[in-house]
Fold:
Amino acid sequence: MALIDRTVTGFLDAFASPDPTPGGGSASAMAGAMAASLLSMVAHMPKTKTNAAPEREALDGTQSELAALRATLTALIDRDAAAYDMVVAAYRAPKATDDEKAARKVAIQNAMRVATEIPLETMKACAALLRLAAVVSANGNANAASDMYVATLLAQAAMKGARSNVDINLGGISDPAVAASLKAQADRYEHT
Structure:
């Protein structure tokens, strides 16, 4: 069963289990999805900051992107767990012969790249979320200030958690050009 199809209790139990997945990458994506949900809630409220038409227009302009980011981040919860499982499977590949060793090495590098690209996607989504959080915070109902604040904190935590996964996984990529390219992407998303 996919993580996202579990009950909240089942989801939390999966994180609490001794299994390595789901882990921090999935938790980061979940935090981002929660941030998108909170921002969407505020953007959909009938009352804006001062009930001015430009505020309503600004909030309405965020809604489709917030829905898309929520969907992306929700999918990344399971995709991150699958990427880690791919890394584990690659390391468990047979290595008795030279051919097996070569195939295992390629599989590990492919898996490490995927395991780095998934949290990069989380970072990219969180960068967009943080931009939208500024719009929602500037125009949203003041009574939802704590919701907007929590959403921003969740998006920031998701960004930092995903960045941590990127940095850890970069260490397993043997091609310096690939590692440098992935790091540059992470730097760009983090400072957007």
Q: What stands out?
A: The domain at 21-190 is CATH 1.20.120.680 (Four Helix Bundle (Hemerythrin (Met), subunit A)). The chain has a mean pLDDT of 95. Residues 29 and 76 are 6 Å apart (CA to CA).
